[in-house]
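lol ok so funny story. i was supposed to be doing the assay writeup but got distracted and ended up predicting the structure for this chain instead. priorities right. anyway since i did it might as well share w the group, maybe its usefull for someone
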Amino acid sequence: MIIKVLDRAAMGYDLSFEELKKFGDVVIYDNTSADELQKRAADAEVLVINKVKIGREFLADAKKLKLICVFATGFDNVDIKAAKEFGIAVCNVPAYSRDSVALFTVANVLYLFTHLKEYARHVTSGKYTEEGKANSLIPVYHEMRGKVWGIIGFGNIGRAVAKAAEALGARVIVNKRTPIDDYECVDLDTLCESSDIITIHCPLNEQTRGMINYDRIEKMKTGVVLVNEARGAVLDEEAVANSVLLGKIGAFGSDVYSVEPFDKKHPFTALLELDNVCLTPHAAWGAYEARVRCLNIISGNIQAFVDGKIQNRVDIIGQN
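and the output, tada:
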């Protein structure tokens, strides 16, 4: 069996792919462009990818390809309909990054909520020494207790974030497709109206694309803290950027973008130097332990496929 890892750079150079060699020959590429895909993957029976886009045209010609393993939970970079049509199995890795993304989410919220950047700069700039005062309390920050933390999307990650928010004293409200009994579930507009902090953890689909737009932002409390750890396109990014600049959104954090990396024309470039903004390079999923876990599950997915079993097959209806 020939296994091609097409974008190792996105998965981290600290990972060992030795485990995959028990299935056959493993060839690893740091990155693979659209122009390189056809040639590199022509003889592959298994592809391991993170961000490489796999479309219908390639799949139609991939005569030897049997299995695509996505090094992620999301699989929107693969044409699943075409893969199914051509008899190519596709596996994802659900739930592996729960603790990593929850950690990053809470860290981002607290960084913004406590004005940590400004306080640290007060010391590193030399002002703390020069002013001769034992403490500085500008800008003003607040305790989390009693604040309303709204969570959009309540899967494994959203639930982990909720537990951390409660531990900090926040009241948690939730927007999810199927209401549950153990948390207060509200519609999206109510969540926007009620929350002091909003974090986003939902999948990207036609219902969620652009859901945080001018109308929804207008419903939010002035000064709301908004953090997106889902997919960039769940936001109207121009609306968010303008609302940050106008002060409607008090603080904004994001680890995901509609185009990654975003270019110099992206609306968020206007926010790069702001103290109340924390933008990170799609890193929340990638704690070392999470990536090791992901690779181990991929190995399990390949083993299940070889054994004729169904595991994490997103090309089969009802399997995730």
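The chain has a mean pLDDT of 96. The first helix runs from residue 8 to 11.
back to the writeup now i swear
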